[in-house]
C-alpha cells in the first residue's frame, strides 16, 4: 500500500469485505452486532468513523479480533506476545 489510509477508511473496507466473506447481509450483521441497519450502512460507506465499542461489537459479530478491523489487508499484522 503506497498511501496511508485512515483507520476509518480501513475499517469501512474491512467491514464490507469481512461481512461479504461470511455471507452476511447488512441486516444479519446489524442483528448480530446489536447495531442498527442504518448505522452499518453508514460505517460501510465511511460516513462516520466507528467508536472503540462499535469496532468491538462488529469484530465479535464477525468472529475476528478487533485489530483485524483496522489493519489494512495485506499489511503485516501486529503480533502481541506476553513477556515473562
Automatic annotation (TrEMBL):
GO molecular function terms noted in the UniProt entry: DNA binding; DNA-binding transcription factor activity
A Gene Ontology term for the protein's cellular component: cytosol
Keyword Transcription regulation on entry: yes
Source species, domain of life: Bacteria
Family annotation (CDD domains): HTH_XRE (cd00093)
InterPro entries: Cro/C1-type_HTH, Lambda_DNA-bd_dom_sf, TransReg_Diox_bact_type
Domain HTH cro/C1-type: 15-69
Keywords of the record: DNA-binding, Transcription, Transcription regulation
Protein name per Swiss-Prot or TrEMBL: Transcriptional regulator
Amino acid at each position: 500500500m503506497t498511501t496511508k489510509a485512515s483507520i476509518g477508511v480501513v475499517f469501512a473496507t474491512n467491514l464490507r469485505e469481512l461481512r461479504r466473506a461470511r455471507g452476511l447481509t447488512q441486516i444479519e450483521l446489524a442483528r448480530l452486532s446489536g447495531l442498527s441497519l442504518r448505522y452499518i450502512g453508514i460505517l460501510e460507506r465511511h460516513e462516520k468513523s466507528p467508536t472503540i465499542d462499535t469496532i468491538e461489537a462488529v469484530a465479535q459479530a464477525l468472529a475476528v479480533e478487533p485489530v483485524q478491523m483496522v489493519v489494512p489487508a495485506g499489511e503485516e499484522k501486529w503480533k502481541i506476545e506476553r513477556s515473562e
